[in-house]
Write a structure and sequence with these properties.
alpha/beta; single chain; Rossmann fold; five-stranded parallel β-sheet; 16 helices
């Protein structure tokens, strides 16, 4: 029995030693290439306001030249110069990603307020079952509060949702064909609605874009939606940690959606916005409704529905956020020179 205990103790000692070696010699390099957001969280915990987003925070200068290409979060900083505002941005990230990152903020950090984006498009099957989910899930393994070597081993063993592209495509097509919409046929699900002739046949660019708007935004939110579960848990975690939580419902291009598809789609988008606003304000979060804030001119991508805005659009969103946050940080609010 004594020999067995000695062997167990030796193995445990070796594991602790190997974990220490990996932590000090290799972990940060691996995280830099595969889980950079964890390093960002570690480096910015002295900020008072933390902004979580996907690529909507960035300038998209490859599409349009801008006079002020700074991030949306930097424009928000201009309204609160005495506070430190930092951002964690990961393209294709969503509420599930942001929840995992919130969980690794250390107790006792300076963080007072968390601002998180709400993209209506992120609730749709195209994003829920995106091919990029595998990479996001892999990174999230390294976010967990476990021994670093164990996290690395779990990544090697693919101990995360690692569906193939074919499986994700099948799930997406299944949702588009089965999730009900509150309309009579042929608009009772996404696939049927897209099959309706509009703007000519499928080769017409307007037809293609109209169908993309339907695919991205034709859905009915319920409390069983996985993204809703993530936002619910974000609220619970913020309450536990004593953080102020602000949800930023991002603008969508309702102008183009209406011109290509019409009121049935834009009405759904507004209903989902109202549902989110009512649900999370009742849970104590500040919900900033920017859905209808911007016209088509401020959206930089014209061939696919995205939440990429020009600098004027980002400034308008930052102003809305800053104004709504005055109830939290009233004494620190200032009007920037560019306003």
């Amino acid at each position: 029995m004594t020999k067995i205990l000695i062997k167990i103790a030796a193995v445990l000692t070796l594991l602790v030693a190997f974990n220490g070696i990996y932590t000090h010699c290799s972990m940060r390099d691996y995280q830099f290439h595969h889980a950079l957001e964890r390093l960002q969280i570690e480096s910015i915990q002295n900020c008072e306001i933390l902004y979580f987003s996907a690529s909507s925070n960035f300038s998209q200068q490859y599409t349009v030249e801008e006079s002020d290409p700074r991030k949306l979060s930097q424009f928000l900083q201009d309204f609160y110069p005495s506070l430190q505002v930092d951002a964690v941005n990961k393209p294709a990230s969503h509420a599930g990603t942001h929840l995992k990152l919130m969980e690794i903020i250390e107790e006792g950090s300076e963080v007072q307020t968390i601002v998180a984006t709400m993209n209506l498009r992120s609730f749709g099957p195209d994003w829920v079952h995106s091919n990029l989910e595998t990479a996001l899930n892999q990174s999230e393994v390294m976010y967990n509060h476990r021994p670093a070597l164990l996290n690395r081993l779990l990544v090697s063993l693919k101990a995360y949702d690692d569906k193939t592209e074919e499986e994700r495509l099948e799930d997406k097509l299944s949702d588009w064909g089965s999730l009900p919409l509150p309309y009579d046929p042929p608009m009772h699900n996404v696939n049927a609605w897209c099959a309706v002739e509009k703007w000519g046949d499928w080769r017409n660019p307007k037809r293609q874009l109209a169908d993309q708007y339907i695919k991205q935004f034709a859905l009915v939110l319920t409390e069983d939606h996985p993204r809703v579960h993530d936002f619910d848990q974000m609220v619970e975690l913020a309450n536990e940690r004593g953080w102020n939580l602000v949800f930023n419902i991002l603008p969508e291009n309702l102008e183009v959606a209406d011109s290509l598809v019409g009121a049935p789609l834009t009405d759904l988008m507004k209903q989902n916005r109202d549902w989110l606003k009512e649900r999370y304000e009742a849970r104590g979060a500040i919900v900033v409704d920017n859905l209808e804030l911007l016209g088509d001119a401020h959206f930089t991508d014209k061939n696919f529905p995205t939440e990429h805005f020009d600098d004027t659009g980002r400034k308008k969103i930052a102003h809305q956020l800053a104004s709504s946050m005055q109830t939290i940080h009233a004494s620190a609010y200032q009007t920037p020179r560019w306003k």
